[in-house]
Each structure stands twice: as structure tokens, then as C-alpha cells.
Amino acid sequence: MKEKINFSQPLMVLAPLAGYTDLPFRRVVKKFGADLTISEMISSNALVYKSEKTLKMIEKSPTEDPYFVQIAGNKPELVRDAVEILNEIDGIDGIDLNCGCPAPKVFNHGSGSNLLGDLKKLEEILSTVKKYNKKQYTTAKVRLGVNEKIPVEIGKVVEACGVDFVSVHGRTRAGKYKAPVDYDAIKAMKEAINIPVIANGDIKDYNKAKEVLNYTNADGLMIGRGAIGKPWVFYQLKNGVEDISEAMKKEIILEHYDAVIDFHGEHGAKMFRKLLHSYSKGYTGANEFRDIINRVHDIKIMRDMIESFF
């Protein structure tokens, strides 16, 4: 089987972000430079119980190639069943296990970053994914620990499960999204294991991305919140350009809007408001613009407004 992913160049990955990295957004970042896109986090439970909403979340754009689905789970048999369902769905190249989500409802359920507090459990769940996965790749997304930072121990457990690479968010579960990202810990994990390591956490622009790559010596970057409102960061990294024209930004915003309407229909205009709040940051007249779009429902009017504002 031909390798769809190679690390001859650093791999640029769009992080799974609940509520943001839906099919339209992934389609846009893929077109403008992301090497790999991953679904929003999917609960193994929801998948096994065939929730309609969950199955829609797995759909991908034809351009998403390679494409991974990320699952969360804490019971080996449920995780196995979820993997077997994904095995039957075409167009998925890899399955990623979420071992990093800090959200209370995920953590209290025993999934996500909870697994970092019990490395035996982490090994059991991740080995289950690896064992049953018939897709080309098995990967894991982790943090540095629950309260203590144990990047090397986590890295070694993940590597021992036979995964293809690991993405590490440079905070503990306790650090949520606010604590400073510990790039030294990412670097330590990279030095301790032999599989590729993808660095994640607070990579908010082109210069920061370059700096993190050089400092950690990671094999790639995973960008999540840094791409919301600035998906062109992937274009910049792909093309090695720091400056990006306003015309290019506008093209990307309109492309995103059209993709959202395509996928979500009429309702898409309303959904796009929160995205326009991010896109308009730093622009003159952004507040007035936000006030107006908050009341617009019509797809065509919304598009005209985006055209004239950006």
C-alpha cells in the first residue's frame, strides 16, 4: 500500500476542534495547504449506537485525502466496535485516539485526557484500536499528563502500542487552554521515542509555527484554534510565505462561506456568524459589521456583505 503520509517535509495537520472543524472548514484548509485533516472528536458510544449526527460528522470532502477520524472511548469492547464500524466506511485513511480532551464531560466519563492518569488503561485502549483497525494508520493525540507532566512516559507507552505517529498538546489536562505551552516537554518526548511527533498548542501564526518546529525538532505541526479566523496559516506554511494578500484572505473566507452553505444549507448563514466574528478581528468597522451580520439570515445578502467588507 502506497504511503499517503511521509515526513520528508514537516506534516501540517488541522487539529480536530469540536464545533469548528466540520467538513466545510476542513475542505478549505485542505485546498489551501493542510497535509492532513481529521474529523471532530467522535464518541465511540455515539458511533456504536449509530447516531445520525455522528455519522454526518464523519462524512468527508472528496479532496480530503488523507483523512482521519478521531474517536474517544474508555472501554475496550466499545472502542473495538467503533473501530469495526469505521473499517466498513470507505475514504478513511487512519483512526486517531483522543487521549487529550480536557472537557469535564469527556474526562469524567473516563475518556480523553483521563487516560493519561492511568497509562495501563491508555495502553489497553490504544492497543485495541491498533489491533482492530484495518485502515492504513493508527495514531494518538495526547497531552503532557493530567496534573503532572510525564511526556516521556506517555510517549513510550504510545510508541509501544505500535502507532504510526503521536500528536502532543504541550499542556497538562489541568492546564486546559490557558497555561503556557511547554515546548521543552514536547521536545523531550520527541527525543525519547522513535516514532514521528507532531507538536500542538498555541501555534497561532506563521512565525510561531516556524519557531516551534525549529525548537522542538518535531516532525510536523498540528494547528487548531490558531486556524480559526486565520485558516491561511496553512497556505503560508505550505508556500513558505509570511505575507498574505487581503485578496487571498477574502478568497479563502468566501470559499469557506460557500462550503458551509453547500454542506449545511440555509442554516449555514446563521452558523457562519461566529466564524465572521473571528475573521473580522482587527478590521476597521468590525463591531458594526458583527452587529449587522448577527441579524442577517439570507444567504445571498450575507455573501454580498462578506464581499464588500473584506
From TrEMBL:
Domain of life where this protein originates: Bacteria
Residues of the DUS-like FMN-binding domain: 14-298
Xref: SUPFAM superfamilies: FMN-linked oxidoreductases
Cofactor: FMN
A Pfam family it matches: Dus
Reactions that this protein is recorded to catalyse: a 5,6-dihydrouridine in tRNA + NAD(+) = a uridine in tRNA + NADH + H(+); a 5,6-dihydrouridine in tRNA + NADP(+) = a uridine in tRNA + NADPH + H(+)
Chain ranges passing through the membrane: none
First and last residue of the signal peptide: none
Broadest EC class assigned to this enzyme: oxidoreductase
EC annotation from Swiss-Prot or TrEMBL: 1.3.1.-
Keyword RNA-binding applies: yes
GO MF term set: flavin adenine dinucleotide binding; tRNA binding; tRNA dihydrouridine synthase activity
Keywords (A to Z) from UniProt: Flavoprotein, FMN, NADP, Nucleotide-binding, Oxidoreductase, RNA-binding, tRNA processing, tRNA-binding
Residues noted as binding FMN in the record, renumbered to the chain: Q70, K141, H169, G224, R225
Residues annotated as catalytic: C101
Protein family (similarity comment): Belongs to the dus family.
Function description: Catalyzes the synthesis of 5,6-dihydrouridine (D), a modified base found in the D-loop of most tRNAs, via the reduction of the C5-C6 double bond in target uridines.
Protein name (database record): tRNA-dihydrouridine synthase
